[in-house]
Amino acid sequence: MKAIISDIHSNLEALQAVLEDIKKQPVDEIYCLGDIVGYGPNPRECVDLVMACKMVLLGNHDQGAMFDPEGFNPPAEKAIFWTRSQLESPSDSRQQKEKRWEFLAERPRSHKENGFLFVHGSARNPLNEYVFPEDIYNQRKMERIFALVERSCFQGHTHVPGIFTESLQFHSPDEIDYTFKLDGRKTLCNVGSVGQPRDGDWRACYVLLDNETIRFRRVEYDIDTTVKKIYAVPDLENFLGDRLRDGR
Ligand code: ZN
């Protein structure tokens, strides 16, 4: 069984709670679809924990922290520059810093395995394209994306978990009792976000994949601690904490 996590966004409490939940399942390997950092208060700790995953992709915020950020709104960009300063923190040893930078710099943008594709954004633009639930009404876009998928594609980036079918339907996890069985038809699965869910449910989200069965997991975490930490960092705007409570 695989656990697939994404969009941690430097939320250490959420990541730790998810890793604890994973430990209780018969999981052999953890895949991470990117955006380890950005928005949240613990980038270094989150990078260190994610390094233990079997497969980790590059997210747009991870890339932004390493290179010149492009296409981010001002609060997100400010968070990215703060994240970079944390990764360059003088309190860490040079060796420690180099290990994190090298790890981030070596991340691939996609991963293929037995007809399954893993990306941060979309099959068409692995790093940056959003596939939102309402895109089911954009037939052209969805057809082009599905054409690039052999069997199933696991993705993140929107922080909105759910299943897209090739017949252009979207199912949120609660509509399908948190379970979906792959049946040979092409499917896109958004695994949701560990550290900043945006589907109205504040709990951390991730996915378990066992053969053909996808299970969405929601995990409560110590959100008060994370919000307090965000409030304490001037470069992280307070709304980045408030939105965690709303799951928006
Ligand atoms: Zn993200």
Describe the structure concisely.
The protein has eight helices and twelve strands. It is of the alpha/beta class.
Molecular structure report:
The mean pLDDT is 97. Strands 3-2-1-11-12-9 form a six-stranded mixed sheet. It has a six-stranded mixed sheet with strand order 4-5-6-10-7-8, with no helix packed on it. It has one domain: Metallo-dependent phosphatases (Purple Acid Phosphatase, chain A, domain 2), CATH 3.60.21.10. Helices cover 32% and strands 20% of the residues. The chain is globular and about 50 Å long. It has 248 residues and is α/β, with parallel strands linked by helices. The chain contains eight helices and twelve strands. The structure holds zinc ion. The site of zinc ion has 7 residues, from loops.
Question: What string gives the helices and strands in order?
Answer: EHEHEHHHEEHEEEEEEEHH
Which ions and ligands are bound to the chains? zinc ion
- What would the CATH topology be? Purple Acid Phosphatase, chain A, domain 2
- Give the DSSP E fraction (strand runs of 2 or more residues): 15-25%
Helix content: 25-40%
What is the fold's blueprint, element by element?
Blueprint: E1 2-5, H1 12-23, E2 29-32, H2 43-50, E3 55-56, H3 60-66, H4 74-87, H5 94-105, E4 110-113, E5 116-119, H6 139-147, E6 152-155, E7 162-165, E8 170-171, E9 179-181, E10 187-190, E11 204-210, E12 213-219, H7 223-232, H8 239-246
Parallel strand pairs: 1-2, 2-3, 5-6, 6-10
Antiparallel strand pairs: 1-11, 4-5, 7-8, 7-10, 9-12, 11-12
Helix pairs in contact: 3-4, 7-8
The structure holds zinc ion.
The site of zinc ion has 7 residues, from loops.
